[in-house]
Specification:
The complex is a heterodimer of chains A (281) and B (274).
Chain A: H1 15-22, E1 29-31, E2 56-63, E3 66-73, H2 84-102, E4 108-112, H3 123-140, E5 146-150, H4 159-166, E6 169-172, H5 183-190, H6 200-207, H7 209-214, E7 220-221, H8 226-239, H9 250-257, H10 268-275, H11 277-280
Parallel strand pairs in A: 3-4, 4-5, 5-6, 6-7
Antiparallel strand pairs in A: 1-2, 2-3
Helix pairs in contact in A: 2-3, 3-4
Chain B: H1 13-22, E1 26-27, E2 35-42, E3 45-52, H2 70-86, E4 95-102, H3 109-113, H4 116-132, E5 137-146, H5 147-152, E6 159-164, E7 169-171, H6 175-182, H7 186-195, H8 203-207, E8 214-217, H9 226-244, H10 260-273
Helix pairs in contact in B: 2-4, 6-7
The chains are: A alpha/beta (281), B alpha/beta (274).
């Protein structure tokens, strides 16, 4: 019998299934699971049905036998947006992982980032939670890798794209989109000539996984395959923390900014010329 | 729709307050016109004041009105990290003061293409790193503190201080775009903002969330009087003293009843963690 292709797809998995796949077999234990029923206190009054885990899976376990936590955003609930509860689950778990490290238990984190950013129905509490997630990643990554996985299909935007940028390593697939502002928001704020939110090939050519990897803004480009994703995360978990986080290469990036044309708009080839690894070599 | 809920013309608030606070200080060289920094003395302690300001001649057209764009993110990171490096061997780390009047992040094709998300991360991480290294970090919100702009410049501070003024606001997205994304009308959003505190745009509702350390009444927020300036300096000084005797994380933001779920989630996680 031929192999069922869908069963190998990582993207087809729910956040909970993705977390289970990445942790060592049999090691997963979920915290604040749906039966704890900690739901958003803000959505019901706005006529929106809540979800029992608020769209965020906190999975404890091991990776390569080492203490780990996988924080999986469920992109199918409210676009993976970060509300008060889902944001606090991610920030709080990262804070505990950092505390573990200070107490002599090396704990690493994997973030499954399928999110449009702030949940606008909880606006300022989502934004505050994202600031706390940034603080917690910046703390934890000093001790152990924080691995961001953007598999698809939601993509990773808004304040959570900044969270991804803070990760020790970022893993993308071809389906992933990774950037600050969602296409609709750019079009709304800057006009269709600046950014056409309906032009999918254009959007993927600038913010898709392949382009982000080719321009050095993502560390691994992986096929949509469970086994390859698991191997990649294990390899990065074992690699330890990078010598210098990407966001601290300030002089290097400032020098690259000087080369950006301001009279013409860039296409993907031009971005690769300026940011691509080939040019540096 | 009232003026302050929309993405309108450049504000001079940030510049007015930055210049008032750094009068007599030494400017930090090598920064673009849209990022200003200066070293001052505040109640006997060294401090670096940093602001992102409008620059109509900015090389990047989408970042000319005070938005945090590529240049701004990376240069705020530089201004902060240079102070951290310079103070590495000192015990009394200088205070970092972010004067916040940022209308948003920059929305544009160049910005997306060249990784504005990383530029914002660089600025936010620089402030977080300064905080971890023992620098007191304070944000003074004098105007808009919008979304990615605020995440990069201000939201990593140990203490947040805001002026109690109609032009001061903190939010995730302007109403027109928020309406489009959430499939609501602007009128529906305004109605919700009146009853759902985290959706409101005004600083009074923001203060209910327990994230601010102090909210200051001013005589003239647009052109501070001597009394206004002295009250702000005293509050900054008090914030530094408070920071120096507290944990350097962001836990002081978790006390409010309106944000009870944020604290409860952490308690439950801790109980189930080990």
């Amino acid at each position: 019998m031929s192999k069922n292709r869908l069963s190998d797809s990582f993207i087809e998995l729910s956040a909970r299934e993705r977390a289970r796949a990445l942790l060592d077999t049999g090691s997963m234990r979920e915290l604040l699971d749906p039966f704890d029923r900690v739901t958003s206190p803000w959505l019901a009054s706005q006529g929106i049905v809540t979800q029992a885990d608020d769209g965020l899976v906190v999975a404890r376990g091991t990776i390569n036998g080492q203490s780990a936590v996988v924080l999986g955003i469920e992109g199918s609930f409210q676009g993976g947006s970060m509300g008060e509860v889902s944001g606090a689950k991610m920030a709080g778990a990262l804070e505990l992982a950092a505390e573990d490290n200070r107490n002599g238990i090396p704990t690493l984190a994997v973030l499954l980032l399928e999110t449009g950013g702030v949940r606008l129905q909880e606006a300022n509490l989502g934004l505050a939670a994202i600031a706390e997630i940034h603080a917690a990643i910046a703390d934890l990554r000093r001790y152990q890798p924080v691995i961001g996985v953007i598999a698809g299909t939601v993509g990773c935007f808004g304040g959570m794209s900044v969270a991804a940028a803070l990760c020790s390593y970022v893993v993308v697939t071809r389906e992933a989109r990774y950037g600050l502002n969602g296409p609709q928001v750019i079009e709304q704020e800057a006009g269709i000539a600046e950014y056409d939110s309906r032009d999918k090939p254009f959007i993927w050519s600038l913010s898709g996984g392949e382009q982000r990897h080719a321009t050095g803004l993502a560390d691994r480009y992986v096929a949509d395959d469970v086994a390859r994703m698991v191997d990649t995360v294990r390899e990065l978990a074992a690699a330890g923390v990078p010598a210098l986080p990407r966001d601290q290469r300030i002089d290097e990036f400032l020098a690259l900014l000087d080369r950006i044309d301001v009279d013409t708009q860039p296409d993907s080839a031009r971005v690769r010329e300026i940011f691509g690894k080939g040019v540096k070599a | 729709m009232s003026e302050q809920h929309t993405n309108t013309a450049a504000s001079q608030r940030g510049r007015v307050w930055f210049e008032a606070l750094v009068a007599g200080g030494s400017p930090v060289a090598g920064l673009p016109d849209s990022v200003q920094a200066a070293d001052i003395e505040l109640a006997g302690r060294a401090a670096r004041v940093i602001a992102v300001l409008p620059d109509p001649a900015n090389r990047f057209p989408r970042a000319r009105n005070g938005e945090v764009g590529l240049l701004e993110g990376w240069n705020v990171a530089r201004a902060v990290s240079e102070a951290v490096k310079a103070d590495a061997d000192r015990e009394d780390k200088r205070t970092l003061i972010a004067v916040v009047d940022v209308r948003s992040q920059a929305y544009g094709r160049r910005e997306e293409a060249f990784g504005i998300h990383l530029a914002l991360a660089a600025a936010g991480a620089a402030y977080a790193n300064a905080r971890q290294q023992g620098h007191p970090v304070v944000a003074l919100i004098v105007g808009k503190a919008m979304s990615g702009g605020f995440l990069a410049h201000g939201y990593q501070a140990n203490r947040l201080i805001a002026l109690n003024d109609p032009k001061v606001l903190v939010h995730a997205m302007y109403q027109a775009a928020a309406a489009r994304i959430t499939l609501r009308t602007v009128e529906e959003l305004e109605k919700l903002a009146a009853t759902v505190a985290p959706m409101a745009y005004d600083i009074g509702n923001y203060a209910k969330l327990g994230l601010l350390w102090k909210l200051l009444d001013m005589e003239q927020a647009d052109a501070p009087t001597a009394d206004d300036l002295s009250q702000v300096r005293q509050t900054l000084t008090a914030a530094v003293a408070d920071i120096l005797s507290s944990p350097r994380d962001l836990s002081c933001r978790l006390g409010a009843e309106t944000r009870a779920a944020s604290a409860r989630v952490r308690q439950l996680l801790r109980a189930q963690w080990a």
